[in-house]
Design goal:
The complex is a heterotrimer of chains A (304), B (432) and C (285).
Chain A (H helix, E strand, L loop, with lengths): L1 H10 L13 H35 L2 E2 L7 E2 L3 H7 L2 H32 L4 H15 L2 H12 L4 H6 L12 H25 L4 H9 L4 H12 L1 H16 L3 H6 L9 H11 L3 H28 L2
Antiparallel strand pairs in A: 1-2
Helix pairs in contact in A: 1-10, 2-14, 4-8, 4-11, 5-8, 8-11, 9-10, 11-14, 13-14
Chain B lengths: L1 H21 L15 E8 L2 H17 L3 E8 L4 H9 L7 E5 H8 L18 H5 L19 E8 L1 E5 H6 L11 H13 L3 E3 L6 H15 L16 H16 L17 H4 L3 E6 L1 H10 L1 H5 L1 E4 L12 E9 L6 H13 L1 H8 L12 H4 L4 H7 L4 E2 L6 H16 L5 H17 L1
Parallel strand pairs in B: 1-2, 1-3, 6-7, 9-10
Antiparallel strand pairs in B: 3-9, 4-9, 5-7, 5-8
Chain C lengths: L13 H29 L3 H4 L18 H5 L2 H32 L5 H10 L5 H14 L6 H5 L6 H12 L3 H9 L4 H12 L1 H17 L2 H6 L8 H9 L7 H35 L3
The chains are: A mainly alpha (304), B alpha/beta (432), C mainly alpha (285).
InterPro entries (chain B): Bact_solute-bd_prot1, SBP
Protein name (chain B): ABC transporter substrate-binding protein
Keywords (chain B): Signal
Amino acid sequence: MALTRTAPDRARGTRARPPGAGRPGWRRRRDAIGLVFALPALALFAAFAIYPMLRVFQLSLYDYNLTSPPVWVGLDNFRFLFGDDRFLASLGASLFYVVITYGPAVLLALVLALGLNNRMRGSAFVRLLYFAPVATSWVAVSVIWRLVLQPEGLLNQTLNTDIPWLTSSTWAKWAIAIAAIWKEVGFFLIIFLAGLQNVPKDLLEAASLDGAGALRRLRYVTLPLLKPITVVVLVMAVIRGFQSFSPQVVLTGGSFGTEVINLFVYKTAFASARMGRASAVAVLMFVLLLMVTFVQLRALRRSA
Amino acid sequence: MSTRARARAVLIPAVAVLAVTAACGSDDGGSTGDGGQIELTYWTHTHPPMNELNEQLIAEYEEANPNVDITYEMIPNNDFGTKMLTSLSNGSGPDIINMDDSALRGEYIPKELLAPIDPAAFGADSVEELEALYVDGTLDGAKGEDGTLYGVPSEFNATAFAINTQHFADAGLDPANPPQTWDDVAEYGQQLVAAGHEGFNFVYLHSGWYTQQLQTLLNETGGSILNEDGDGSALTEPESVEALQIWYDLIREDQVGNADTASREATSPFEDFASGRRSMTMIYPWAVEQIAIDNPETFENLAVVPLPQVDPANPSGRWYGYYFAVNKASEQQEEAWRFIEYMTSQSERWLEDVSFVQPLQGWEESPAAAEIPFLEVWSQAYQQGRFDEVGPHWSEVQDAIKAAIERSIFDGQPPAESLEEAAESVEQSVTS
Amino acid sequence: MSTGAMVVSRKRRPVGKVVVFTLLLAGGLVFASVFVYAALSAVKPADEVLASPMRWLPSQWLWSNFTLPFEQAPFARYYLNSTVVGVSVTLLNVVTCTLAGYSFSKFAYRGRNVLFFVVLATLMVPLEVIYVPLYALVFDLGWVNSFAGLIIPSATSAFGIFLMRQSIDGLPDELLEAARIDGAGELRILRHVVAPMMVSPMAALALFIFMTNWDSHLWPLLVGNDADHQTLPVGLAAMQANNLGSGGLPMMMAAALLALLPTLLLFLVLQRKFVEGITMTAGIK
C-alpha cells in the first residue's frame, strides 16, 4: 500500500521543531523575528482577552454584585455550584446541544465540502445555499424558525406531525438542534473547503493513475491531508457548542430544559447580579474546555 | 481596586501603540463640559412614541435652559438591565434613570444606587408635600423599605380585561355583561371556543410576563410568592397554589385557550388578541393603542372591562409603574431633578401623546383624560391595585416561577407539585 | 464518489457527477426553503406573517416593507457603523492572525507552544463574563461610545490564529528554505511566498471575522451609547423590543434580510478563493 506512505510524506504537516541546544546564531535570530510577527496579536490578547480572563478568575473567589465592592468568599461559589440543580441541568443541556448539533453538522459539512470542491458554476450557487444560513443573524433566524416550528408550521406540515416543538420539555432541545444544524453547517463547510485547497491535485491524479478508486483516494489521500483543518473544525465545534447562547435565547429563552451554560452564566451575571458566581461557572467551563481541547489535540496528533 | 490598577500599569504600555490608532474615537469626556455648560445623560427603554415625546421635551428644556445639554439614550428593553449594571459597575452610568418599580425596589434602591428625591426641585418644602400631589400609594413603587422616596412616575399602569365584542356576539354572549369571575371566564371561554375562537389565554413571553400574570392572580387569591419575613417562599400555601390552579384549569381542564399555539413574539405581546384570534385577554393601558395600530378592526370591537375577580366583593388588581430617578453617583443631582420636574410638569402631554398616566391627584378630570376610551374602567383599576412583590435576586425567582408555570401549563404537572419545586429554588435564591 | 478527486475524474465519470450535484442541489434547496419563506414573509402584509396554517405566498407584495426600517429607525446609520467596524475588524484580523499563525507554525522560539495554547485558551471563557472587566478597561481607556472601543478589542482572534497556524502547517518547509537561500527576508517570504498560498484560509478567515462581528450584539450594546455608535444587531434588537405590533414583524424580516446582504456579498466575492487554490497548490512541486 504505497499510498498510505505517500500522502503524509507529501503533506509534510510541518511545524518548526521546538528549539534544541546549540542552534546556530542565524537560526536564533530568525526565530526572534518570528516571535515579533506574533507580537501584535499577543499584545492585543494580553490587554483584551488575557487580562479580563484573569480578572474573571479572580472574581470567582468573590461575592460581587457589580455595584458594591467585591467580598472575598473563597471557594463558596464553587461549592454552591456543585450542589445547584440549575447549574448541573445547564451543563447537561450544553452537552446534549454540543453532541446533537455539532456531530451531524460537522459530518454533513465534510460531505458537502467534498462534493462542492470544484469550480463548476452550479457549485458556486449550491455553496451559497448552504452558506446563507450561517450569514444570517440569530435574531432573524429566530423569527423565521419560530414560524417553521410552530404547531401548524412548515416542519409539522412536512412531517405530517403535530409536535409542539418549542413548548415542550421533550421536543424543545431537538428543535433547537435542528435549527442550529441548519445554521452551523455553512461555517464548517467553508473551513473544510479552505482546507481542501491544500490537497494537491497532482497527488490525486497520481493516485487515480495507480488505480485507486474514489473511496480509496478519500481514505488515503484527501482525509490525511485534511487533518490539520479537521483539528480546527473539531476543536471549534466543541468550543462553539459549549459557548452557545443565542439560539437558546431567541428560540426558547432557556425554557423547557434548554438553558445552556452560557445562558445560565449570562443570567447569573447580569439578571441576578451575581458576577462572582458567574465567574466561577466561567472558570469551571474553562477547565472543562481546556481538558477537552487538550485531549482532542493530543488524540488527533497521535492518530497521524 | 489595586489589583486592577497594577494589571493596568503592566498592560497599558502594550496597548499604547494601539491607542494611537484609536485616538480618533474617544469623545466621551467628563460630565461637566467647558464654560459652565451642564451635561446630563438620560436613559430610557425603547418605545417609539415615548422616545419621541422625550426628545421633544428635552429640546424644549434645552431651549429654556441654554446652559444644559441632555444626552438622551434609548436602550432596548431586554438589554436595559445588563447595560445599566455594567455601566454602574465602574461608577459611570447615566445621571437620570427611567426604570420600572420592580427593578427600583428590587435592585437599585436596596443597593443604594439612587439619590433620594429632592423636593425643592419640585417647589415643595418637604417630601410629604410632594407626595400629596399624587394619588395615594402610587409613589410606593419608588420607595425604599424605610419609606424614603427615590423617584416620581413617568408612567403608571393598572390591569384591566379586554373582550372582543364581535366574538361575544358570535358566541351568543352579551358584551354588556362581561365575565366577573374566573369561573365566568371559563364558561364564556368554552362558548367562545365553540364559536370558533380562542376564548382566553395568558401571554407567554419572558419570565417577567409569566410572573406578573401569576402575581395578578395571587393578589386575588390572597397568595404570595414570599413569606411575610421575605426569607422564604409562600408558593406552596393553599392560596398561592389556587392562583396557578386557576390558570391550569382554564387552559388544561376547560381548554379555553391553547398555550402551544400562543404567539410568543415580544414585538407584539397582544398579537393573538389584536389579530382577532383570541376573544379575551388581560390588558394594560398602553396596549390599547397598540391594538388600534395593529388591527383597526379588532380595535373597533374592543371593550375594556374590569379584571375578573376571585372574589368580586373584594376586587384586587396589579399596579406597575416607570419612575424617573437620579443616579447617586451623578455629580449634578440638583440639575437632574430640575429636569425631571419639567418632565412631570407636562403630565397632560404624556397622557395625550402616548397614553401614559402620571397619577397626579385629579388626573382623570383633565381634558386629556376625557379622551381616553373606557376611562371609568381604568380609573376604577387605578383605585384598587398593588405593586408586585420583590426580593433579593428577583430575576431568579421569576425564572423559577416561569419554569413552574411551564411545567404545569405545557407539560401538565399538577400546580401543587410544580410550585413545590419552585418554592425550593425561590428559597435558595432569596437566602444565598 | 463525492471526494476531492472529483475534479480529476470530471471527464471520465460525468453521470456520477451529475447525480452528486443533483443531490447536493436538492439538499441546498431544502436548506434555502426556510430562507425563501423568510424572504416571502418580509413582503407580506402584517397579519399574514403569523397566519396559521402558514402559507407561502403573500396575498399582496408589499415591497415597501424594505424601506420601513430606514423610515422608522436610523437604519442607514446603523448600517454605516456596522460596515466601518466590520471592515476595520476584518482587515486587522487578517493581518494579525496571519502574522501570528505564521509565527506559531514556522518558527521555533522558546515558549511558542505555551503562548499558542494560552491564545487558544482565551476562547474557553464565556464572553458574557469577560465583558465586565473588559468594559472597565475600555472605559478607563476612554473608548466607551467610540469606534476604538468597538474595533480594537476585536482586532485579533484566537480562532483566526488557530486557523492560520493549522493552514500554514501544511506548507512545505523546503519552499521557505528555497526563498531564504535566494536571500529573501522573513517579511518578504511571508508576503511573497506564504500569503499567496494562504489565500483560501485568509478568505475564510475574513469571511468568518466579518460575519461574527456583523452579528455581534452584546459588546456593541455595552460600548455604543448613541445611534452614532450603535451597530445593526443593537438596532435590530431595539426594533424587536419596540412593541411594534404585528406590523413590526415583516419589517423585522425585511431589516434582517437587508442586514444579511453585506455578508452574502462578501461570500460571493470571496467564495471563488475557496476553490481557486486548487491549481495553485497543485502546481508546487
